[in-house]
Amino acid sequence: MTAIWWWLQRITGAALVVLLIMHFWVEHFVSENLRRGDLTYDAIRARITNPAWQAIDIAFLLIALVHGLSGARNILLDYSRIGRRGARFATAGLVVIGAVWAWWGIAAFRNL
Amino acid sequence: MKDLIRKYGGPFSGMVAHLIQRVTGLLLLFYLFLHVRTIYALREGPAAFDQAVGAFNGVLFKLLEIALLGAVILHALNGIRITILDLGLGQDRQRRLFWAWSIGVGALIFLAGAIPLFLASVLRR
Hints:
- The structure holds 2 protein chains of 2 kinds.
- By secondary structure, chain A is mostly helical.
- Chain A has helices at 2-29, 32-36, 41-48, 51-79, 83-107.
- The longest helix of chain A is centred in the middle third of the chain and has 29 residues, at 51-79.
- Chain B contains 5 helices and no strands.
């Protein structure tokens, strides 16, 4: 079980490198306006109404959450002595946090 | 400074790399929280969203954004280094990999990204 999470951390990490390069390019570098940081509603809308971009961005968020929360779990278990029951409790808590966080991010696109 | 480099540059490189990975990881997770919070304003229409994003238009936030790029690059390159070591490759060179790859190559990529951002968002505004 632990080995699966260990591999998942590497695989999601590799995916995030690719997704982040794309994200930075599209949102921060591709035009002078974006380099200046003028990210507007209309600019995002023009891109995000494309369902392919929505799928990419939602997948990006989910992968980042798995990677980030699983990393936070590693740190928590390394520096605390909460035992096996405590670890299961912490895992369940992080899964709930992740689910709420994912819903929060996905719901942001609903009215576009 | 010289003593510090001697102390942490040698036998402690792995520990420094490990700590950097954890601290930048937690910072990036916290940033993701702020990021989703801002993006959520998309639901309230153009005026509310542009105002929410506009709150981060000051020079201080632009500099923090460039620092964020540095944290991402450090975490990503060091993560690649950890994966390479975990696969059993280059374990006898992990210290040199840290300095040459995570720090050296990282600094070059950081400058390539930070300079255009700095010129556009801090100097020419």
